[in-house]
Each structure stands twice: as C-alpha cells, then as structure tokens.
Design brief:
By secondary structure, the protein is of the alpha/beta class. Helix content is 26%, strand content 19%. Helix 4 packs antiparallel against helix 8. The two termini are 27 Å apart.
Amino acid sequence: MARPTVTFLGGVREIGGNKILVEDGPDRILFDFGPSFSPRYEQYFVDYLKPRSTSPVQDLLEFGLLPRVEGLYSEEALADADLGWKPPEIHGVFVSHAHADHAGYLGLLDPSIPVHVGPGTKDVLDAIQRSSPSMRYGDHDWRTFADRQPVRVGGLEVVPYPVDHSVPFAYGFLIRTSEGTIAYTGDFRQHGPRAEDTRTFLTAAAEERPAALLIEGTRAGPDPRKNLSEEGVRRGVDRILEHHPDLALACTYPRDLDRLRTLTEAARAADRSLVVSTRTAHLLTSLAGRYPELDLPLPGADGGPLVYARKKKRFFSWEAPFLDTALSAAEVRTRGRRYLLALDLAHFPELIDLRPPTGSPFIHSMSEPFSEDDVDDKVMHNWLEHFGLGFHQMHASGHASGRELDAIVRSVGARAVFPIHTEHPEAFLRPSRSVTLPEVGVPYPLRDASGGH
C-alpha cells in the first residue's frame, strides 16, 4: 500500500491560496481551496478583468492558477477546459475558515465531494453568499463537524480544533495517518479574544509528536505591521474619538467581527453610534442570535450599530429589513459628531455627499500595505488628501508574529516543518533544522518529510 504523503497544490511562497492534498493509501482529502493573494494572479486578472463565469477552470488553468487535478472539478466548471471531467477522486474537503483565500474556489469543485466545515463557518459562508453576488461556494454535500471531535474519511482521522483568527470559527487540524499525525494550523494568532483556543490546539499538536507541521507564516520575514492586540486597537480608537468631536470614519474588514465589536463599544463609550453598511448589518444579524457566545452587536438593538443607506439605484431583498431606519448621507453629515461611520474603500464616493469637516479622523483598521506600490493604498490616500481627512492606522493582525512562529515551531517539535501561506518560508530555517521549503505539486512522504531544505 502507498505510504501517506502531503502535496501542496497552492499556498507555496504566496499569501493565501492554500490547497493541501493528504493521501494515505486509497484515501485522498484536501484542506482548503481558495485563490491566493499572489502578485502572479494579478499579472493576468485584476479589478474587472476576471476569469469568465462560463469557463472558470479553463481560464485559471491557462496561467497555472489552479492545480491540474483529475476527479476534482465539477463538469460545469470544466466547460471548454482541456482537463476532462472524471468522477470524483477526492474523498473530502476540510475548510479551515471562511476567508476567501481558503474557501473562494469551493464553487469549482464537484458537488458530490463532501465538504467538511464548522457550523459557524457554514453560516458565515451562507451570509456572504446571500449578500455578495460574486461569491458562489456551490452546492455540495456539506458536513458540519464538532469542535475537537474526530471525523473519519476512510483510514484517515481528522480532528478539528478551534483557533483564534480575524474571522470567527477558524480551525486548525490534526490529521492522523497510518504513519503519524500531520498538524495543519490554518490561519491563526495568539493575541485575539480566542487566544486560549490557539494555545489548546498547539498543546494538543505537541502532545501528538507530529510527523509534520504545516504552519502558516504570513508574518514571517520582513513585517511592517504594528503588533497591536484587540485591546490596543480599542485604546487607540478611544483616544481618537476623544480628541475629534466631529464625524469619525473607519475602514475595517467587514467579516472581522471582533473589530466590529471593538468599534461598537468604542463608539458607545464616546456617546456615538457605529454606522455600518447593509452587508455588514446582514452578517451581524445572521450570526448574533445563533452564537450568543460571540457577543456580537445587533443592528437596531439598544446600543447596537445603525445602518447607512448608500446612494444606489437598486436594493436587494436581503437589504430590505434595514432600509426603513437606515441613515442618509444628509443625516450623517449634519449630525456627524454622533457617529463613527464604517466605510469600505468601495464606498468612498459617499464622501462626496458626506463632506466630513477637514481634519476628521479616518481610522484604517486593516493591515498596512505590503509595499509602497500598493495601488489601492495610493487611491485611498488620494481620496483622504482630497477631503482633508487625518489618517490613523489601528489594526490587530489576524496572524502570529515572526517571533511567535519561531517559538511555536520549537514547542510543537514536529519531525518536519512545512511553511506555507508565506512569501518568506526561508525565515523558518532559523528556529528549526527540520524545515522543508515545499514546492508546488511535489508529494512529500511522511517517512521522508524531514529530508532536506
């Protein structure tokens, strides 16, 4: 019988795009399946230049942006591709969390392949799909797992552990094979509200003396990010709101629910209300009642966020519950000192109607740009300069720092370490001699996993 192997079909020397194939004898399972944030993708597709909806796999295969794997994609997605459809040869897909770079290509997979997710992740994906027409995860044999409860796929056993990340319901996995355990971290951090979950997972991984550790390294190597905690973000926002009595604006990831809670509480403490988009309101409303442990702010509730009515010709049915009480630009402009308005970059044209007073603060509660050539960053600062807004960087990363990653590699003590989801895998060579810098498409047998750099 063939020995167990791990093959990286994406996520190698790039941020995002994790596609990890674990094989053990006849059993084959995938972990995550999303697009990368690699510059290589943007060499061919950017803004409105996207793969055609009628032949997405064909277009992505043309440039090597999808793995050429038989028995994986749906017959519909393979239209016109030179990769023919075959009955599924993958026996399950496990999704670590709901970010697009881990789940965004699920809609391309054969619908009969079981997709394993946490119940909260499934609810987040459903809410995103309802409110974002461009996101389609597809019809699948969805199977929800329970925290820390083993799931068997043939001879493989997968144990999902919750971890802390910038979206709730994120997981790492222990994958038990015939020749030892593989620990896959997914995306994780140790400085957020669920840090104890991460520590529990890492302790469990170390206790298994894993044959391999597949560890994300977003912040390995050169890292311009300020290492704030969520509490640090709150203190910074409090200071800004205290010293700026007029309208304040913020920009954050719409699915960073920890940040939305932080901004809601900071606004309330400053005798303001957080104002969010209909899309954010829909996500919060979809989750708040089902997961009271998240303590999510509920739009429309006492002290909860208010909703902003963007200027648009058409509203969707999922927006209807928020429209009767939504705030207009005129209301926000004339009573700005009462609000902290969360405004996405795509919504910046609203500034033309809002006309915030010169010097009004703009709280950028997202990652710093990776380079000075970041086009969106330049566009954002052009708008801020035009309207005379003050820029304030306040963000707690969704990922562990380089120093933390070094310590984790040492403490887990895996026989082999594979850095993924990073542009600087060589940074892992410092803390461990057991590091293998993976190559795309190469099967790594567990028995030989520590066979070299």
